[in-house]
């Protein structure tokens, strides 16, 4: 269906927390302690975590021409990642626009502070499931010669 695509992969743990916050409290809010402790959280993890893996695996399987970008690498090295993306898209971006992107890197739609639940919301069973998805996606990336999952995602 698509000639080419850019697959943006984010750490699934951070992705799950961010999406649950968005689902419960909108783009700028945070889920309440009660929401984290409700049955909604484990149900969310059991449906969204497999989707994280299947989404990446599907694009790797069916994408004809694919660029894999890791979200955290985009945050760490915005300019070099934007240059890679521009080269992949075969477009030219002026240095002025790149610097503008860098100076507005944080944007306006960011949750204030790193408010997280006062406890680890991931149970050992959740971690085991998510870690297996991380390893599956990493293996698929490796087998297709894409940049592998960042070390910070991998189970310890």
From TrEMBL:
Residues 6-98 form the Sulfotransferase domain. Keywords: Transferase. The keyword Transferase applies. It is an enzyme of class 2 (transferase). Pfam families: Sulfotransfer_1. It comes from the Eukaryota. Its EC number is 2.8.2.-. InterPro entries: P-loop_NTPase, Sialate-O-sulfotransferase, Sulfotransferase_dom. Belongs to the sulfotransferase 1 family. PANTHER family: SIALATE:O-SULFOTRANSFERASE 1, WSCD FAMILY MEMBER CG9164. This is Sulfotransferase. The gene is WSCD1.
